[in-house]
Specification:
Organism: Saccharothrix hoggarensis
Number of helices: 9
Enzyme class: transferase
Strand order of the largest sheet: 4-3-5-2-1-6-8-9-7
Pathway: Pyrimidine metabolism; CTP biosynthesis via de novo pathway; UDP from UMP (UMPK route): step 1/1
Radius of gyration: 17 Å
Subunit structure: Homohexamer.
Function: Catalyzes the reversible phosphorylation of UMP to UDP.
Helix content: 25-40%
């Protein structure tokens, strides 16, 4: 399961940056051609963030639903690049029904698509307000039987502090889910880490913007930070 942040899709701005989507699609296509089954969850932060809109007075539920619709636009952009430029079959499944452009989220159907070598892209978040797309990635990964959640970020891994603010921040090579939660390391939503901890699902946090990193993460190379629970499922 590959989790992509919406902010990166916008290249730091509002909307979709074709150059970024092209880079991501190229990396995904290279992995798929090796026979690895790939599912993707994409955020919508390049369009809307429910929590931020709430601070400006908007109803949180309505703002979150707007963010969910933003994720679908990102899904369609990735689908277009994968199919048009790389000939990779894809299916978009959404948690909010929109039959003209995507299938509804059906776990067994998603698993069947993966068995056929298609990339399944999940949009619409969890379909409910107050849940992040990080948590959606963890839930979808567990439900369709993924081996690992690859959490692609704009940083190299999990740090002791925000490396953009603290120049002395140190990156972890390995850390447990519980340590991430106890130390308040905000690399992703706490609910996602808690869900993965309870179900022994490893998370690999790495830098998406380094060319080839998705393939390196899939191969289990020593990049980024591996978040796992001792005694859990074997490393991928």
């Amino acid at each position: 399961m590959l989790k992509l942040g919406g902010e990166m899709f916008g290249g730091g701005g509002v909307g979709v940056d074709p150059d970024v989507v092209q880079t991501v699609s190229r990396q995904i296509a290279a992995v798929v051609r090796t026979g690895v089954q790939v599912a993707v969850v994409i955020g919508g932060g390049n369009f809307f963030r429910g929590a931020e809109l709430q601070q400006r007075g908007m109803d949180r539920s309505r703002a979150d639903y707007m963010g969910m619709l933003g994720t679908v636009m990102n899904c369609l952009a990735l689908q277009d690049f994968l199919e048009r430029e790389h000939g990779i079959e894809t299916r978009v499944q959404t948690a909010i029904t929109m039959g003209q452009i995507a299938e509804s989220y059906i776990p067994r159907r998603a698993m069947r698509h993966l068995d056929k070598g298609r990339v399944v892209i999940f949009g619409g978040g969890a379909g409910m307000p107050y849940f992040s797309t990080d948590t959606t990635a963890a839930q979808r990964a567990l439900e369709i039987g993924c081996e690992v959640v690859l959490m692609a970020k704009a940083v190299d891994g999990v740090y002791t502090a925000d490396p953009k603010i603290d120049p002395n921040a140190q990156m972890y090579d390995n850390i447990t889910h519980r340590e991430v939660l106890e130390r308040g390391l905000n690399v992703a939503d706490a609910t996602a880490f808690s869900l993965c901890m309870d179900n022994n699902m490893p998370i690999m946090v790495f830098n998406l913007l380094t060319e080839g990193n998705i393939a390196r993460a899939v191969r289990g190379e020593k990049i980024g930070t591996l978040v796992s629970t001792p005694g859990g499922r074997p490393s991928f």
